[in-house]
Write a structure and sequence with these properties.
3-stranded antiparallel β-sheet, elongated, 3 domains, single chain, Membrane-bound Lytic Murein Transglycosylase D, Chain A, 3 helices, about 200 residues, Immunoglobulin-like, alpha+beta, about 35% strand, 6-stranded mixed β-sheet, about 20% helix
């Protein structure tokens, strides 16, 4: 082979080797008379898996209460923070006077507590109704009114009924226009906020 032919071949071989390093595989014959053939190597990918990770459904177990000697439905309702009517309905009891020691009662879940002001917008001098629902039965709830200037009026405590309802009236006589905040705080964990506006 002539020197310059050998040089060209050597360069060609170097180039082909670089292509191989870049991901293209080249078959090179040692004999320059033979043809070179190349083929691109396709990346090998793992076959798609049809396996789906198992999902587990978790459900919250119901809350229960086991009746003890001397328990009454009213006392249990107060203890667990629901109404006696809700306990009767959840356990399909004809009445709450016939409880048996060791009997297991299902305690129904309460909807989340809410504080509403009616009406939410009013003229000064209007009596507003402040109502908490789904507080704990027998819970003592105090209402605070925070005026736009930061002054606070605190009412006397009110006791939630067996169904968790607390209601009181706030008279807006003498209040200035603006947005007022209502804060309801219970002695058994209830803490709620709402607002109303006095229109000018």
């Amino acid at each position: 082979m002539a020197p310059e032919t050998r040089t060209r071949w050597g360069r060609r071989r170097t180039l082909l080797c670089l292509l191989a390093a870049g991901g293209v595989f080249v078959l090179v014959s040692c004999d320059p008379a033979h043809e070179t053939s190349s083929r691109s190597a396709r990346p090998r990918t793992a076959p798609a898996s049809d396996t789906v990770a198992p999902t587990t459904a978790t459900t919250t177990p119901p809350v229960t209460y086991q009746v003890k000697r001397g328990d009454t439905l009213t006392a249990i309702a107060r203890l667990v923070g629901v109404s006696t009517a809700a306990l009767l309905a959840a356990n399909q009891l004809p009445n709450g006077d016939r409880l048996t020691e060791g009997q297991v009662l299902v305690v129904p879940p309460l909807p989340p507590p809410q504080l509403t002001v009616t009406p939410p917008d009013a003229l000064a001098g209007t009596a507003l109704t402040l109502t908490v629902t789904s507080a704990k039965a027998g819970e003592s709830v105090t209402f605070e009114i925070v005026a736009p200037d930061g002054s606070v009026f605190t009412g006397s405590p009110h006791t939630a009924s067996q169904d968790g309802t607390v209601s009181t009236t706030y008279n807006t006589s003498g209040d200035n226009s603006g947005t007022y905040k209502v804060v309801a705080t219970g002695d058994r964990g209830t803490s709620l906020q709402a607002s109303f506006r006095i229109l000018g």
